[in-house]
Request: fold
Amino acid sequence: MEEGNGKPSKTMPLMVKGAAVLFVLCLAVLIFSVSQLTDTVQNGYSRGFDADNNENQMRNNIQELISQEMDVIRQQVQSQRELATHFQSMKHREKQEITELQRTLESLSASLANLEAQLGGLENDSQFSKQEALRLSQVADGIQKQGADTIDSIKLLQDRMNRELPALSNKLALLESAEAGGAVGGAGEGAGVAAALEALAGELREQ
Reply:
């Protein structure tokens, strides 16, 4: 633009300078906004990544604890299985002992019956002395006592087998249940293991 006297206007350079300053300010604001937005996005990704890492770490810690519990349970199961094998062997030996005791009892019963028959036959013999009768009677009493002791031994062995083997079987079943309950995996596994262990602890306390 030109003034009225034909000289160039001074307003034009001022407008250009103002526009340039305004452009620079807008550009600076835009750059700052983009920078802030970038930082926000990066922080969000960083927090999300940290949260994922924390969650994975917690999951790994839980799995490690469960794995340790399962190792303990497996060791207990193995120990109880060995104990069960030992008791089964004892059961077999005790059955053999019971069989032998029953044979002894049968032999004693036969001896007693034979002795009573001899006593019955000798009572009518005039040459049979009272001392001999007393001796045979004492022998018969000894046989009867031995037979009673044999019967008591059989009952004790049977009671022991009936008492100890079911308790051992229940304990082994609890441990195997805990082992099976922990084989699935996941956070719910811990609760199943804990419940099985608590049941086992109660069983052991009762014994």
User: Anything to note?
Assistant: The domain at 12-206 is CATH 1.10.287 (Helix Hairpins). The radius of gyration is 49 Å. The chain is about 90% helix and 0% strand.
